[in-house]
Amino acid sequence: MPRRRAIREKLLLGALLLGVMVVVLSASGFLGIYSYRRLVRGLSCRAAELPLASELGECVGMLRLAHARALSSEAPDASAFLSGMRATEAALEAYRQELAAFELDDFRLADRTHEARTAQRISDCLATIDSISHQHATDSESIDAVTTRRGMLLAVAPHLDALASLTAELPSFLQERLHDLSSEVRTRYRTLIITTWTAAIAAACLLTAIAVLTYRWVFKPLRMLGHGSRRVASGDFSFRIQVDTKDEMAELAGALNDMTERFQAIRDDLDRQVQERTREVIRSEQLASVGFLAAGVAHEINNPLASIAMCAESLEGRFNELAADDADATIVRRYLALIQSEAFRCKGITEKLLDFSRLGEVRRQATALAALVADVSEMLRHVGRFAGRTIEIEEGPDALVMVNPQEIKQVVLNLLVNALDSIEESGHVRVSVRQSAGEATLILADDGCGMTQEVLEHLFEPFFTRRRVGQGTGLGLSIVHRIVADHGGRIQAASDGPGTGATFRVTLPLARVGEVDMAIPSVPGRAA
Description:
This protein is an alpha+beta fold. The chain is 67% helix and 8% strand.
């Protein structure tokens, strides 16, 4: 038994994939942003450092200029030099404060190791010059002041040259960093591009996976459930919904399938009951029709029987006084022939009546439609109440239909009886058979009382009748409709209104090749 996976777990998995996608995209974006921020911060710091380095160089230059002027004077004055020393020390201090103002990361543009080391050497150099200046100032109390100042200026000259060299190195460090910046940044932004593309592709794959899983776990099952529900609602109870998601969707599909199966069982049971009741009603209607025909043909049977009885009495008297002459023998033979003819006539009438009363086999067979109509009209010819009414069967090619002959006889009988009841004593009922497009059409048209639109709308409903109470049950045409529908056909009624007659069209499928196993022979058109 496969493990059931709840929709909640699947949704949590989708949310997890979505979270991973967001984390990957966010990490890629933040990596690029922070790399850009680090670069901009390093450039801004170095941009603030460069003016201070230039100012320090200018101070050192001014210090050297004051030193040169004091040294070239006959009476050297060290005050300008000492002022330059103070300015240089102040510029150095500002530069060192700028170096210590920011703690940057390991980005090579922000590496200030050489600058800090050089600044320390400049500070040491300034401290040496300052100590030399203080030493000569102490010695000037015992020796000539001019000689002392000149000696001091000469002593600091080498240190001034070193100081100038060190301050000149400061911009060179930044220039080297900027020179190496392009190659370093190229490597970094290539790494960032690769990282960003990788993150984008991973996010696209995760998004595709989320879309596929959502379609398979949510949208596809919902679509199948909707399609299956519509199929079942349309009456296709044999359809089963197949959902293999192993979650609540699959349970819902299983519940719908179970419900559909129960519906199908209930429908089949109801159809079976309806068919049984229909067969009972048809049997009752056929029995009623047989009684109707029996009452109608009773006098037709009595006439031949009366002839037989009279001939029998005559023969009995003749045989008592029979003379052996040829004339009497001829009369005997004529009477005997009449007796046989009338007896066979009675036999034919009763056989047709009994044949009509049988339900027949359930198996359908190829039946000639026009010949069947002719047989039914022949039976109605013996009904006395239809005397004077004419049934005209149009001559033409017959049509073989795959039907139950006894049930179709019931259809034709009901339609002909209704038509004969609706016409006057001199009225006509015209019957024709047509075939086209794989179908046979039986058309019964009368010139009787016709029907209104309201009657046409309710004509095939059970228990609907226009006859007086006690003269009809209203089941005849509903049974006709049921029989025709069971044979895969259709029946239509039309009338232009009261007094204009009515037309019934019964359409049945033609028998296909291979289904023809027995057919009723065609009968030419005849008038009843």
